[in-house]
TrEMBL record:
InterPro entries: DUF11_rpt, EF_Hand_1_Ca_BS, OmcB-like_DUF11. Keywords: Signal. The keyword Signal applies. PANTHER family: ALPHA-GALACTOSIDASE NEW3 DOMAIN-CONTAINING PROTEIN (PTHR39198:SF1), HYPOTHETICAL MEMBRANE PROTEIN, CONSERVED (PTHR39198). This is Conserved repeat protein. It comes from Thermus filiformis. Residues 1-17 form the signal peptide. Residues 798-862 form the DUF11 domain.
Length: 907
């Protein structure tokens, strides 16, 4: 399973998502032949929404947190920064002081902001000062603001400080005031840590640790009757933690100690209302530690710690968060009671993504039985489907069912392979008409989706077995795929005639170090340059977004035999290509991180070595080239030779991937002209330069190509497309001469051959054009609007933000000279959108005709639907004979048109 955090974006659909939509129509032409046609593809790119928060909030008069210490002592304020936008953002951090004499008594000194990597509320060795944070969508980071109370402050005086943030996209957060109080009395600190931090898997264990010490100016006093344990009133210092709802206390895991007093571990089964010193057999939902004593018994410098474990439910839903903090009660002066609350830790249940696809009604294999479609019997067995024999010039259809077998909502990309040259195959919705031009979904965990693979076998094709692979890929985790096989056992000549009379188908990169000296050591002459290589090659190579894992060591070779602690540092990191580098302990040297990230080795005895990993994560949009960095280790004891380092780099591969979508089909009269549009998408991490050409024209038809719909050429060269989702519209004009017979079909395979850096990539789209007596032309356009207002966001519908509406206009027109019948226009509700409304108008139809709507192509109504599920489709037709349905008795005359307006909202 792959575990990930940030499943339901606070700002909706991720930035850069392409929402694609294509309409389709089926009809019977004037030669009484069933036909289908598709519109141009409309693509809308979701734009980035910038939003973030810093918590806890607070005002100058009512601060969100208060910390106390001696004059000249440090105070630590803990904050959480959350990116609630839909894309990566950089939040710049700063601080402001209160107005002395008006709102507070003094300014804090030596204010520093640290990134709290392990979210324990304290500043650990190796944690860096920051002025900004770069966070992915829904990511969070912990920071600690460290400041010093002036030595001139007197008892009871206080200073206010505000941590402020500004997003790179504009929003700010400035209501995060905190207060530092100078005191000569006792002051207990309180920190909370969770291990692991961040994402957790269902069924896993979290260890919570609460710790602190007396940093004040005198001993801390016991609180009289601070708690009742087993019916007896107790005096002392009390630390309590209410376990977050949903988590289960691990029996026997509670432990604690203190630098003074007598420690009693206590338990509660009612959220801390009553306590017992005997662990209950079950139902523990709060734990604590009583440090018993009397008077001023907890001296300056004395510390305490409390630790326990909880278990995450095995069936926890992805995205479930567990926030936890603890409280400490003590008396600073023997008279008053002070309550200190720790920082809050948050663990989020990660998502497991998975998918299964199989024969119709059997997504998880085990299929049996058969069904009939397009005139052929499809036999199901296990994870495969077979048509025993098909004829050239016909269509074969295999229906499939996909199932989301992950634990969270997900969308899926469908694809296929194995089609022989000349076969025209496409993926359709289960109505066998509506094309699938983008991802399907999102589907809830356990949800299913029915679709079909349809292939037109050329009239000239005959041969043996053909196997087609249908592939479903999770968008949440592209490594999760599944496939099913469709086989046509043989294709026979489908054409016959008779003259007679009478009756008759990671890599894990092994650590290798090249140096003139001994591995893991430095020498008295200074720090030798070391370079870490991938075994057998120069430097490791990886794709954008991938991880490269290094096995590293620090060995203590102290001549004095003393132990040492080494900080683990980085320098020279190429942040344009590298998202993060984190260190992890790896005691058993198995290449798997032990617990949370670390910033130092801890004590390493002389002659011993510390084994750890460095996990280098590349940015998803990393450009090709070398991403350099240095691993550094720094002694905390020695000043003579403080650092040793090893240089390395990861070569970011050129990822060359282009898509030319969608496949198109249409009808045309003879003579006549039809124009198709395709979208060329560059999903590479470098610019693409493409040549576009086609192989149509076997009957003397003329094919011309354009990038602007104005200038036309026999082929295109030097078409530039920007990287990381850049698009270019490709126009194809087909000119059919006079004298072509009705029913003649020409298939043009359009090929985009692209150069991406030193690599190449290509993709194709097919255009199937059929000569008819009458012709239905289908055209589509889009406009995006700001939210639910009438303010236009993009008149071409090419961009939109989460919450925006996209209004699609589909026009179907009979541009031929004969009547068309049984005309049904369909349009799917694209992924990442929610249906809002649909309406239609008609022109040129007989008087008394009625517009009808359907959501399944079978049941029709004069009332437009009020809801359509994402992935479903809307069907529109015109009832000309008044029977309340759409069939072959309903006529669309020459020049008649249907205009549909479909409105959806971006999720």
């Amino acid at each position: 399973m792959a575990w990930a955090v940030g499943l339901a974006l606070a700002a909706g659909t991720p930035a850069g998502t392409a929402i694609t939509n294509q309409a389709a129509a089926s009809y019977i032409d004037s030669a009484n032949q069933p036909r289908t046609t598709t519109s141009n593809l409309v693509t809308t790119i979701v734009q980035q929404v910038y939003a973030f928060s810093i918590t806890p909030d607070g005002t100058e008069t009512s601060p969100g947190q208060t910390r106390s210490n001696l004059p000249g002592g440090q105070v630590l304020f803990q904050y959480t920064v959350t990116n609630s936008g839909n894309g990566t953002d950089t939040i710049n951090l700063n601080y402001a002081q209160g107005a002395n004499g008006t709102s507070d008594d003094f300014d804090l000194l030596n204010v520093q902001i640290y990134k709290d990597d392990n979210c324990n509320g304290n500043v650990d060795a190796g944690e860096a000062q920051v002025t900004s944070l770069t966070l992915g969508a829904d990511d969070t980071a912990c920071v600690v603001v460290v400041a010093t109370i002036p030595t001139t402050a007197t008892n009871g005086q206080y200073g206010n400080l505000n941590l402020t943030g500004a997003s790179s996209g504009g929003p700010t957060d400035t209501n995060n005031w905190a207060r530092a109080v100078a005191t000569t009395a006792a002051a207990l600190t309180a920190f909370k840590a969770a291990s692991p931090t961040g994402s957790v898997a269902p069924g896993s264990t979290i260890t919570y640790t609460i710790s602190g010490s007396n940093t004040g100016g005198s001993a801390a006093h016991a609180v009289t009757s601070v708690v009742t344990v087993d019916g007896n009133s107790k005096n002392g210092i009390l630390i309590t933690d209410v376990i977050p709802s949903g988590l289960t206390y691990v029996s026997g895991s509670l432990s604690g100690s203190a630098g003074a007093g007598t420690v009693t571990l206590i338990y509660s089964t009612n959220g801390g209302t009553t306590w017992t010193a005997t662990q209950p057999a079950s139902g523990v939902n709060a734990v604590g530690m009583l440090i018993e004593g009397s008077g001023a018994f907890f001296p300056q410098g004395a510390s305490y710690t409390l630790s326990f474990q909880v278990q995450v439910p095995s069936g926890a839903s992805a995205g479930t968060s567990y926030a936890n903090s603890a409280t400490v009660q003590f008396s600073p002066d023997g008279t008053t009671t002070q309550l200190v609350t720790t920082n809050s830790t948050t663990n989020t249940v990660g998502a497991s993504y998975d998918v299964r696809v199989g024969p119709y009604q059997y997504p998880e294999a085990g299929a049996t039985g058969s069904y009939t479609v397009s005139g052929y019997t499809v036999n199901r067995s296990g994870d495969a489907q077979t048509i025993n024999s098909a004829y050239s010039g016909t269509q074969v259809v295999f229906r499939h069912t996909l199932k989301n077998t992950g634990n969270t909502s997900d969308s899926f990309t469908l694809s296929f392979s194995g089609a022989p040259s000349g076969w025209t195959c496409s993926l359709l919705a289960d109505d066998l008409t509506t094309p699938l031009s983008g991802p399907v979904g999102p589907l809830p965990a356990g949800g299913t989706y029915d679709f079909a693979l349809k292939c037109a076998i050329p009239s000239t094709y005959t041969g043996g077995s053909v196997t087609l692979n249908v592939i479903a890929t999770s968008q949440g985790d592209s490594s999760k795929t599944d496939s099913a096989q469709d086989t046509v056992t043989s294709v026979d000549d489908g054409f016959r005639f008779d003259l007679y009379g009478g009756v008759n188908g990671t890599g894990n990169y092994t650590y290798t170090q090249t140096t003139s000296g001994t591995d893991y050591t430095s020498d008295d002459s200074g720090n030798p340059t070391r370079v870490i290589y991938q075994s057998g090659t120069t430097f490791p190579s990886a794709n954008p977004g991938a991880q490269v894992v290094y096995r590293l060591r620090v060995k203590n070779l102290n001549f004095n035999g003393l132990p040492d602690n080494y900080q683990l540092l980085l320098s020279g990191v190429d942040t344009t290509r590298i998202a993060s580098i984190l260190f992890y302990a790896d005691a058993n040297d198995d290449g798997t991180p032990d617990g949370a990230p670390i910033s130092n080795t801890g004590l390493v005895n002389a002659g011993q070595e510390f084994k750890f990993l460095a996990v280098v994560t590349l940015r998803p949009d990393a450009a090709p080239g070398a991403a350099g960095f240095k691993f550094e280790a720094q002694s905390t004891q020695s000043g003579a030779e403080p650092k040793d380092f090893a240089s390395s780099q990861v070569n970011v591969n050129t990822v060359a991937q282009v898509l030319l979508d969608p496949d198109r089909s249409g009808t045309v009269t003879s003579p006549g002209t039809i124009q198709y549009t395709h979208t060329l998408i560059n999903n590479s991490n470098a610019p693409a330069t493409c040549n576009v050409s086609g192989n149509g024209g076997s009957y003397g038809w003329t094919y011309l190509y354009s990038t602007d719909g104005t200038s036309w050429q026999a082929s295109l060269s030097g078409v530039s497309v920007a990287p990381n989702g850049g698009t270019q519209t490709i126009y194809v004009r087909v000119q059919v001469p006079a004298g072509e017979p009705i029913g003649r079909t020409d298939v043009n395979t359009v090929t985009a051959s692209c150069t991406v850096g030193s690599a190449s990539a290509s993709d194709t789209a097919t255009e199937t054009t059929t000569v008819v007596g009458g012709e239905l032309r289908l055209q589509k356009s889009a406009v995006s609007y700001v939210g639910s207002t009438s303010t236009v966001r993009d008149p071409a519908g090419a961009t939109a933000y989460p919450g925006d509406r996209i209004v699609y206009t589909i026009t179907a027109e009979n541009i031929g000279t004969g009547n068309l019948t049984n005309v049904r226009v369909s349009d799917p509700i694209p992924a990442y959108t929610t249906f809002v409304s649909v309406s239609a108008t008609a022109a040129g139809f007989p008087a008394g005709s009625t517009i009808l709507y359907s959501t399944d192509g079978t049941t029709w109504s004069a009332t437009a639907p009020s809801s359509v599920p994402t992935g479903g489709a809307v069907y529109v037709g015109v009832d000309t004979n008044g029977d309340g349905t759409i069939d072959a008795n309903d006529v669309m005359p020459p020049g008649a048109s249907i205009t549909i307006t479909l409105t959806v909202q971006v999720q």
